[in-house]
Write the C-alpha cells for this entry.
Amino acid sequence: MQVDVLLGMQWGDEGKGKIVDVLTPNYDIIARFQGGPNAGHTLEFDGKKFVLHTIPSGIFHEGTMNLIGNGVVIDPVTLRKEIQNLIEQGVPYTERLLISQKAHLILPTHRLLDAASEAAKGKDKIGSTLKGIGPTYMDKTGRNGLRIGDIESGDFQQKYQALKEKHLQMLERLNFNPEGLAEMEKEWMDAIEFIQTVPFVNSEYYINNALKDGKRILAEGAQGSLLDIDFGSYPFVTSSNTVCAGACTGLGIAPNKIGEVYGIFKAYCTRVGSGPFPTELFDATGQRLRDIGHEYGATTGRPRRCGWLDMVALKYAVMLNGVTKLIMTKADVLNEFETIEVATSYAIDGKETLELPFDHANQTLTPVTKKVKGWETELSANDPLPAALEDYISYIEAETECTISIVSLGPDRTQTLIRDQQHVG
Ligand code: GDP
Ligand code: IMO
Ligand code: MG
C-alpha cells in the first residue's frame, strides 16, 4: 500500500478539512504531518460546523484512526479544547486518536516568544497566528525541544523548567514582559495531564506496520505550499515544510511509499498575514470575494486578503509536490461573477516571467491577467456543471497538466462533486 497526501496549493485555507472529511471513508488512517494550532480546518455536516487545529479531519468517522505525526507541534491547551468539543459530540476520541511520541510541545513561553518576536519586527511582522509555531520549530532544530514522549519521563518537570528559564532570558533581552505566565503554565500543566488520555505511539513504526498490513492512509497537510519554509515567500512563511516532502519527514514514510498527491486550491486566492500576494484585489471585487466566501480566518478570525487565481503560483505548487490530482474548492463563491480573472504570468521590471522570483517579498510583481467568462448560475452536486465552469476547469487542467478530480460547491460535506470517480481514493 501507499500513502496518499492531501496538500494546500496556495496560502492555506483551501478547504483541506472539508475535503479530508469527504475522502475519509476511503481510508483507515488520517495523519497530520506538520504545522500545529496555526491551522484551522473547518468541517460541516448534518447542520454542524467544527474547526480542528491539531486533530486530523477524519476524527468524526467511525473506524478511522487519526494520527498526530512527529512533524506536528502540539499545544496541549488547544488540543484539550479540541478534544473537549469531541467529547460533547460523543466522539470516542481515545479509540480514534493517537499522538506521536516524537511530536514537539509548544510551551507557554513559545507563545510569548512568538508575540515578542512579532512585536520586535514592527511593521515587518510576519502576521503569525501567534500560536508559538516558529519558536517551537526553532527549539526543535536547535535541539532544545520537549517532545510528547518526554511527558512520560521522570524528569519532565526539570526539562520543562530548564527550557522555560532559557526562554525567560530571551524574553528579557527582547524587553518583553512575561505577564500572565503563571496562569498560562497552570493551564498548560493541567492540559499535559489531560492529553495523557490519548495513546502516545512510536508513530513511524505504527504507520509503516499499517502500510504492511494493507491499511489505506491519507496524510493531511496544513497551511499551503506558498507558506512552505523553503519554497514560500520567505520570510513571510510558516516554519515547517508544507510540501509533499514534509509528509515523509513528518511521519517517517519513505518517498517511494507516496501514492496519490491531491493538490487542493480555491477557484480564486486568499492569504492571511503579511507577504506578497500578486493577484490581491484591494477594490470592491476583493471585498465581494471576502463577503461571499466568508473569508475570515478559522483560527484567528482575521479578514483574509482576496484576489484572483494565480496560475504561476498554482503551477509552481503542482511542480513542487508532484500533484497527481487537483481539487478545486469554493467554485460557488464565483457564481455571481460575470467575469473572472486569472494571472497567467508576472511582469517584473517590464519583463514577463512564468517563475516566482527568488526575492518574491521585495519584488514588485504585476500580474498579467486574462479574463474568463463567469457561469452566473447556482451550482449543484446533482447537476452537470455549467459550460463556462467546465471551460475554466479545462483551462486549469491544460495549464497544470493535471486532472481536477473533485469540485467543491459549498462548505457542507454533501456539496461536493466527484468528477472522476476512478481517480478518487
Ligand atoms: P482549511 O484550512 O484548508 O481546512 O480551510 P479553512 O477551513 O480554514 O477555510 C475554508 C473555509 O471555506 C471554511 O469555512 C469551509 O467551511 C469553507 N469551504 C470549504 N469548501 C467550500 C466550498 O466549496 N464552498 C464554500 N462556499 N465554502 C467552502
Ligand atoms: P491552514 O492549515 C492560512 C500564516 C499566518 C502567517 C504565516 C506564519 O488552516 O490552512 P505562523 O503562525 O505559522 O507563524 O504564521 O502563516 N498561516 C496560515 N494561513 N492558513 C493556515 O493554516 C495558516 N497557518 C499559518 O497567517 O501569515
Ligand atoms: Mg484554515
Q: What stands out?
A: The chain has a mean pLDDT of 96. Residues 77 and 191 are 5 Å apart (CA to CA). The longest helix spans residues 156-173. The longest strand covers residues 339-348.
